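Supplementary Note 2. Why include the ligand at all?

Several targets in our set were suspected to adopt different conformations when bound, so apo predictions alone were not considered sufficient. For every target with a known small-molecule partner we therefore ran a joint prediction. The input for pyridoxal-5'-phosphate is given below.
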Amino acid sequence: MNWPKHGGQPAKVGRQFNSKETNRSDWIDFSANIHPFGPPNWIKSIVADSMAAISVYPDPEYEEASRRLAELNDVSPDQVLVTNGGAEAIFMTAKLFEGKRALIVQPTFGEYEQACLHYRVETRDVFYDNGFRVPLKELERQMAWADVVYICRPNNPSGTVISERDIRVLLERCEETETYLVVDEAFADFVSGTDATLTRMLSQFNSLILLRSLTKMYSIPGLRIGYLLASSTITAKLRCWQVPWSVNGIAGEVVKALPNDDPFVSEARTFVKEELVRVRERLTELRFYVSPSQVNFFLLYDLDAPNKTEELFAFLAKNSIIARHTHNFKGLNGHYLRFAVKSAEDNDKLLACLAAWRHHV
Ligand SMILES: Cc1ncc(COP(=O)(O)O)c(C=O)c1O
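The joint prediction is reproduced in token form.
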């Protein structure tokens, strides 16, 4: 089996299990963890109306876009760096620590390690426990070694959120050990409540660097929009290193138009929260472990057939359902599958298929 590095490639994965049906297109893709309903209409209209933006260079400083993001996050524009997706923001932080040392809290998104490798940052892993709780004491101890710690909050692939109290402990420790804390908030839009993001901690801790992405909530992986929030000293350095015109003009137009309190976002949050409760209840009845996720995806582990994850993956694929394998998430080693929370209809298909699997094994 040729396991792809990222989700969102249903046909490529599905074909490997259904080799005779190469032209199939009816895959239900649970492997990509983006908003289930596609982009909002306001983004579609801006993209449709932005033809003029392709025949001019974008503003190399992205001043208007940075100002809008600063307003929305209540920070100064010089604390904002607009990036070509969250992925560029991740790579830019690794550049900041070129040749130094990073701790990565695992299992998590593989691009932190990839970016560190690219910039020759030496890495060490610290692992969540079985319930995806952060190993606070061990992290505090290892921080004396590290120049930077990477934490994904909410974490991909578990969907779990480290408490604000634990983050504060780590930031206080950062001050003692002169370590930076990079927190990837790519999925923070899906979390309700005031501690969904750590933005207000930026004014208290210069060591905090936040990474954001518009990809997940707005379902726009093809537009490539992300940004980074940090002290102005850090963003000034990164601005000098960023590839010129890294963010395309159409993406820039979307950022400038980002609304306050977008109802699309609050509706998505409510929908995902309710669906997650419903799906978790049914899966628990069916004797599957579901990670204590707060967002639009979760990890699943078959309590009755823990050694049959690959068979389960194949069973789902034969029924048009594509899960995200976990072979390249450190510590999970393929024993779990990750699923997005999709429309109620698609979630029902998943639940029916997993119930059928119960009778099958
Ligand atoms: C945790 C996390 N951060 C960042 C990204 C990158 O997102 P993008 O570059 O599309 O904004 C992803 C994509 O899967 C992700 O899972």
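The pocket of pyridoxal-5'-phosphate is lined by residues 85-87, 109, 152, 156, 184, 186, 213, 215, 221, 226 (CB under 6 Å). The mean pLDDT is 94. Comparable summaries for the other entries are listed in the accompanying table.
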